[in-house]
Structures are given as structure tokens and as C-alpha cells.
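ok, trying the design again with the full structure, not the truncated one.
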């Protein structure tokens, strides 16, 4: 079977790898001139690779760990001590261990104990998500941890990530964060370990690419899909011209380059709105309005990420959550407090993280203007910070960064199988109840390959 995989992020590469293993030749079409999608790297100079968006793994991320093992590169993964902080009421509080919570002054002593006890109860007693699917995170936090915990901790964090939609976020989303990632018991209670691949995420992509190409497939960079149609016998994928990525994400803005290619199957791993825009009318008609309604119902927050190279350390922490909405960003991730500067030739890197609703004016500004907005906030966290510390800056925007998971989300997820034999959709909106992440993209990639094979087998049986 000849298969087109659209998107060379983690999901797309894993789908193509799994299908290649099963003996199918896959062409992977990627709009960007590099591999990895949201987890892509950039060369920050001198061949030093760093993710455009901060990335780490949790000890519970077993699917990606298993993939590293399967590809005979387990030594790539290193587990490093993490240090977390919460910036609230004008200062950064360490926020890694239960003891840190007990010392977190913005909450009253009673609220600290109540919040910790509720988190532990959730981890110990509630291993299933179903009871939380019809509740908002706000309702659960206020009831179980108290109003103060919502006002001082969870409310600011949810507003930071989801903006105006914070109060609509499902408790299922928070349940997954609180129960699946880290167990507040044993050694992990004292010290959180996070994973990071020794040579960035890039060697994983290179290895996956090799397995796909060794099986007769192609990985086509800077070659997006511009349209997908159906000629009555096969799918027709029209590639877009090189440099199309400069025109944004909407494939309708891409110029066609060359003749359409024919495929028995297509797995699209692009965001839901891109998938919708890729389908020619006939094929969209076959997919049907019920399925497309679910696809069109997907909502995302955009990530706006400023990566700064600094001439010195900014803070003592790897990860600082900003629980103060007066600051115009939501997180500070100091990569070189996680992976030593020596790894980067002595250089130091800080990500300033933000999530915004599409259309927000801040998404339109350049680095200098953004720094004008961020500088007072950075100085609130570290009063000595000055723009002279900045050696380099890069700005990245990801429109489909975070699916907005509201109450009743499960019922609205489009299945992987679109209902058209041979056409599969696999993207971050279908990862549930866990929050999206590379680990779950590895799982999704495997599931998508199975969904495609099953749908083709069903078609063969009726022909
Ligand atoms: C700010 C941020 C921080 C994150 N931190 C972490 C973390 O710490 N740990 C973690 O595990 N995960 C993290 N994630 C999440 C993780 O990166 C994603 O969940 C995962 O990479 C998604 O993979 P994917 O392949 O499903 O989608 P994507 O990576 O979005 O891949 C889709 C691909 O499709 C391509 N594409 C789009 N249109 C077309 C077209 N027309 N034709 C061809 N190709 C097209 C895109 O360029 C992209 O490469 C983070 C994400 C963000 C945004």
C-alpha cells in the first residue's frame, strides 16, 4: 500500500515508521524545512541544537521511552533533577516538594494543607477520569482545595494557559496533570526528575527518518500538502511549492507545485483546521458533515515563545510558573538550569512562555516590541535584569499549540478513522484524557497506523 503522511512532527514520523515496519511505503509531506513539528529544534549557532519550544519528559512518559529503546538509542535519554518555582505576590517560591507547598506564603497555612491533601487524595483514590469529565477544574478546585487555592494558584495558572476560557476548562484536563505526571510519594516526592535527550530531540527524528527511507519511503521537507482529493480510485495529494511555510498554515494559500500524487491511504497529522482546509469538496463530502463538525469544533490556544540567550543566569530555577496575572507572560523556563551551560558551549538560555487566544495583538509584534512589553515583568522576577544581558533572541508562534479542553470534551473528539476508508486523522485534539505531549504523540502515531491498516482491511473485505 502507498501511503501519504501529512506532517513530520512526532505523530507523523511515528505513523510512517510503524507503517514502514508493516511493509508499506510512506511519503511524509512536511510544510516546515525541518523535522519535529512543535518539538522541532533550531541551530542556535555553532551547531548547537535547542528546541524552539522548551521540552522535557516526565518519568511517566513510557511510550516515548519505549520508542528510544526500540530504536536502540536508550542512552540518549537522561533524567535530570528539576527545580520548579511559583512566582506569586512579588517573589518566586520553590514549588517542587510537599514541604515547599507547606512554606508557600501566599496561601494561608490551612489552605496549604488542604491543597496538598486534596492532590494526594486525587492521586491515591481517583485513578479514573470519568467522575471528573462533567466538572470544571474551577468547581473541583474550589470544592476540594478551597477558594484560596483557586484564587492564588490554579486560577492564575489556568488563566495563563487558557485566557478567557480558564473557567470552562474541564477537570479532566487538570486531573491528568495532577495524577499522571508525577506521584507525590517515594523518592519522587522529594526530587522530581525530568527527561531530556542528550543531543536534543533531533537524533530521534533522524533515526525515524532513516527507518522510513530504508523501507522505501520518502521524507519531503518544505513540501506541504496543498490539497487532498479523491479521483474515484485513489487519493490525490497536490504538493505545495517550496517556501509555502512563509504563507502561514492555511494550505489554501499555498501554490500547487507539480502533478498530484496518488495514494491508497492518507494519514493527516496536521491541526484540525488545516485538515479541514486540505480536503477538496468531493472528499469533504465523503467525510461528511457529522465528522467535520467535530473537526471544526476544535479550539486551540496559540503559544508565543521568546527564546533568549543571556550572558548570565536569570534565576535559580528551571521552571517558574507565573501565578500573577499582572505579568504579561505565563512561564520562565531556564534551560541551562536543567541542562548545564557546558552542554551549549557555556551559553545560557531562557524561554519566556506565553499562551494567547488567536487574534490577540501581542501575536503580531516583533522581538523588540515584545521585549518592551515583557521587560518590566522580567524585572519583577529579577530586579537586576537588564536588556544588556541579552545576546540573542528568537521568537516562535504555534497557532495549534494547546487544545482547549472544556467540559464534555470526550464526546466531541473526532475518531481517528474519518469514515472514509484509507483516510485517518491523528492530531493533538484526539489525545485525551492526558494533556498533549510528545509521549502521547508516540502512542497516537501507533494507533493511527493501526487505524489505517484496519480501515484498508475493511475496504478490501467489501471489494
Ligand atoms: C510551547 C510548547 C511546549 C511544549 N512542551 C512540551 C514538553 O515539555 N514535553 C512534551 O512532551 N511535549 C511538549 N509540547 C507538546 C508537543 O510538542 C506536541 O504535543 C507534539 O510535538 C505534537 O506532535 P504532532 O506531530 O502531533 O503535531 P505537530 O508537532 O504540530 O506536527 C504537525 C506537523 O504538520 C506540519 N504541517 C502543517 N500543515 C501542513 C501541511 N499543509 N502539509 C504538510 N505538513 C504540514 C507542521 O509543520 C508540523 O510539523 C509542547 C508544545 C508547545 C507548543
Amino acid at each position: 500500500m502507498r501511503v501519504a503522511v501529512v506532517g513530520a512532527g512526532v505523530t507523523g514520523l511515528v505513523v510512517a515508521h510503524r507503517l514502514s515496519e508493516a511493509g508499506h511505503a510512506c511519503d511524509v509531506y512536511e510544510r516546515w524545512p525541518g523535522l519535529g513539528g512543535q518539538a522541532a529544534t533550531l541551530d542556535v549557532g555553532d551547531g548547537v541544537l535547542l528546541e524552539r519550544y522548551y521540552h522535557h519528559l516526565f518519568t511517566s512518559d513510557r511510550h516515548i521511552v519505549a520508542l528510544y529503546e526500540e530504536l536502540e538509542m536508550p542512552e540518549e535519554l537522561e533524567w535530570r533533577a528539576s527545580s520548579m518555582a511559583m512566582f506569586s505576590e512579588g517573589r518566586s517560591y520553590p514549588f517542587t516538594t510537599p514541604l515547599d507547598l507547606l512554606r508557600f506564603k501566599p496561601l494561608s497555612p490551612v489552605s496549604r494543607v488542604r491543597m496538598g491533601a486534596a492532590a494526594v487524595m486525587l492521586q491515591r483514590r481517583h485513578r479514573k477520569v470519568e467522575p471528573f469529565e462533567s466538572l470544571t477544574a474551577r468547581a473541583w478546585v474550589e470544592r476540594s482545595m478551597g477558594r484560596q487555592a483557586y484564587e492564588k494558584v490554579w486560577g492564575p495558572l489556568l488563566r495563563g494557559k487558557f485566557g478567557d476560557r480558564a473557567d470552562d476548562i474541564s477537570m479532566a484536563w487538570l486531573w491528568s496533570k495532577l495524577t499522571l505526571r508525577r506521584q507525590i510519594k517515594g523518592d519522587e516526592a522529594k526530587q522530581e526528575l525530568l527527561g531530556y535527550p542528550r543531543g536534543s530531540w533531533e537524533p530521534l527524528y533522524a533515526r525515524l527518518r532513516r527507518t522510513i527511507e530504508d523501507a522505501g519511503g520518502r521524507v519531503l521537507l518544505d513540501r506541504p500538502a496543498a490539497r487532498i482529493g479523491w479521483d474515484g480510485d485513489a487519493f490525490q495529494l497536490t504538493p505545495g511549492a517550496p517556501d509555502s511555510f512563509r504563507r502561514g498554515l492555511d494550505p489554501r494559500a499555498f501554490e500547487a507545485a507539480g502533478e498530484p500524487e496518488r495514494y491508497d491511504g492518507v494519514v493527516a497529522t496536521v491541526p484540525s483546521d488545516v485538515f479541514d482546509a486540505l480536503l477538496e469538496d468531493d472528499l469533504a463530502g465523503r467525510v461528511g458533515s457529522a465528522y467535520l463538525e467535530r473537526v471544526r469544533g476544535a479550539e486551540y490556544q496559540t503559544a508565543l515563545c521568546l527564546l533568549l540567550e543571556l550572558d548570565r543566569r536569570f534565576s535559580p530555577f528551571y521552571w517558574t510558573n507565573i501565578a500573577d496575572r499582572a505579568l504579561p507572560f505565563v512561564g520562565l523556563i531556564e534551560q541551562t538550569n536543567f541542562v548545564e551551560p557546558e552542554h551549549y558551549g557555556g551559553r545560557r538560555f531562557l524561554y519566556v512562555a506565553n499562551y494567547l487566544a488567536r487574534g490577540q495583538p501581542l501575536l503580531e509584534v516583533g522581538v523588540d516590541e515584545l521585549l518592551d512589553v515583557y521587560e518590566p515583568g522580567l524585572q519583577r522576577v529579577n530586579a537586576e535584569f537588564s536588556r544588556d544581558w541579552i545576546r540573542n533572541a528568537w521568537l516562535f508562534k504555534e497557532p495549534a499549540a494547546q487544545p482547549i479542553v472544556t467540559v464534555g470534551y470526550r464526546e466531541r473528539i473526532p475518531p481517528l478513522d474519518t469514515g472514509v476508508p484509507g483516510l485517518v486523522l491523528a492530531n493533538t485534539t484526539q489525545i485525551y484524557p492526558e494533556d498533549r505531549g510528545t509521549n502521547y504523540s508516540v502512542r497516537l502515531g501507533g494507533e493511527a497506523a493501526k487505524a489505517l491498516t484496519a480501515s484498508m482491511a475493511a475496504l478490501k473485505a467489501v471489494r
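Keeping the full-length input from now on. The longest helix spans residues 438-462.
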